[in-house]
Amino acid sequence: MPSGKKILIVEDDRVLRRVISDNLKAENFIAVEAEDGAAGLEMAKKEHPDLILLDVVMPRMDGIAMLEKLREDEWGKNAHVVMLTNLSEAEKVAQAAERGVNDYLIKADWDIAGIIEKVKEKIRNG
Length: 126
Hints:
Elements: E1 6-10, H1 14-26, E2 30-34, H2 37-47, E3 51-55, H3 63-72, E4 81-85, H4 90-98, E5 103-106, H5 112-125
Parallel strand pairs: 1-2, 1-3, 3-4, 4-5
Helix pairs in contact: 1-5, 2-3
């Protein structure tokens, strides 16, 4: 796996965010973190990560709103985004797909190792 690829984790659950970050760092990724969509949007525009792991339900700005604003940005319109959520509603999946999300993971269906493998797959396949 190429080292130095930057992954932005936008997740309001501090423990989950830290676990994902620590596991990515162990795989030689650069992990940057944001606790909500507003901070995530700012971080994405500043850091230009190779991939964004984006939670859907968060305070201040949710993941769908962040994705909408990200897609308005010149860099952000082509950013690679994987949505992470506990929701399984078809409506949220459709909203994310309409905004150009690259993949969608329901957190309850994935363990940390699976999330890390999905990140590696997305980085490999662009």
